[in-house]
Amino acid sequence: MASVKLTNVKKIYGKDTVAVQDFNLDIADKEFIVFVGPSGCGKSTTLRMIAGLEDISAGTVEIDGVVVNDLQPRDRDIAMVFQNYALYPHLTVFENMAFSLRLKKVPQEKVYEKVTQAAEVLGITEYLTRKPRALSGGQRQRVAIGRAMVRDSKVFLMDEPLSNLDAKLRNQMRAEIILLRQKIDTTFIYVTHDQTEAMTLGDRIVIMKDGFVMQVGTPTEVFDMPDNLFVAEFIGAPKMNTFKTDLICENGKYYVTPYGAKIEITGKKAEMLKEKGISSRSLILGVRPEHFKIAKKDDPSAIPCKITVNEMMGSELHLHVVEDNGDKLIVRIPTISLDDEERNSLVYGATIYVTFEGKVMHFFDEETEKNLLV
Ligand code: ADP
Fold this sequence. Notes:
Blueprint lengths: L3 E10 L3 E11 L4 E5 L6 H9 L6 E6 L2 E2 L10 E4 L11 H11 L4 H15 L14 H13 L5 E5 L7 H18 L2 E6 L2 H7 L2 E6 L2 E6 L1 H6 L4 H6 L6 E10 L2 E4 L6 E2 L2 H9 L5 E7 L4 E3 L8 E10 L3 E8 L4 E7 L5 H6 L5 E6 L5 E3 L10
Parallel strand pairs: 3-8, 3-9, 6-7, 7-8
Antiparallel strand pairs: 1-2, 1-4, 4-5, 9-10, 11-12, 11-14, 12-13, 14-20, 15-19, 16-17, 16-19, 17-18
Bound molecules: adenosine-5'-diphosphate.
């Protein structure tokens, strides 16, 4: 059992640098929680307060129902993997992994058993006699994880563990962490600035900005129903297109009118607008790049625009376009949906017509930037 609960947790550095504001979260036993947000939003500080590496300015942190605010890090039964791995250069991989067990005077037999078991799980058995400098970034990463694993901690904290790796290795290690999680079966709290890591690893994601929690939810929840414009633009790549437009309610049907086009809102989103009794108004509309499609010129829902960049991603094209008022949009088109002639016509400066699905829009208030349907 290892639940973690944060109640009204706050961190103030010095006199008035508020790094974390009123953080509240209940983390269930064996849950994988990811803190994500841009640099400086307070992710690491929150993690370090849970670890006991930073004092808590206000509020409480509980582990398994026990308030740990005043407990030393070593008494909190947690393991932490840092961004820079913090391996001892003069010790072998085996001794790096065994270090905390030696401090606790664990018998040699037990140390051997635990280290070799963890090395087996992580696929680093053949490196146990090497020094860290003779390992690749990914291997060092595994040693750092192994060192945390041998401690049988209740909670596993990871602070940007993949950020020093190149893109390919990062993808590979991400998959390994998913497998590792199944093997270790403990509570994980993972910090990253990368929304892809957050989406793929987290059971739930905590999205932060300027010390505030902007939303807590499953990857599907934060993607499909972002609470606010910040979350909408932060989750998903390339990011959601957002623009001011009018919502029109006409004979029980809803339309949006971006850039002179008229697009009917359909499905669940139309029902939700009706349920909330939302009437005609101006708002910020959000549409993900993948929900756009190429339209015919005479389609009333078509938005004319010019291509500024065509990024060929392999299975899809990312078209950067600018519409007549100068607003920039990104449109994702699966290459398989285009014939050769269409593909060849999508060049810099070409005029194209785009539209989007009526059932996948997001609506935000211009002032509060909150999702109108939440
Ligand atoms: P993140 O992990 O999201 O990048 P941090 O938690 O490291 O953000 O930092 C949150 C805020 O607290 C930032 O504005 C940062 O400058 C500030 N901060 C972090 N550590 C200290 C410190 N030791 N002293 C003063 N300010 C700090």
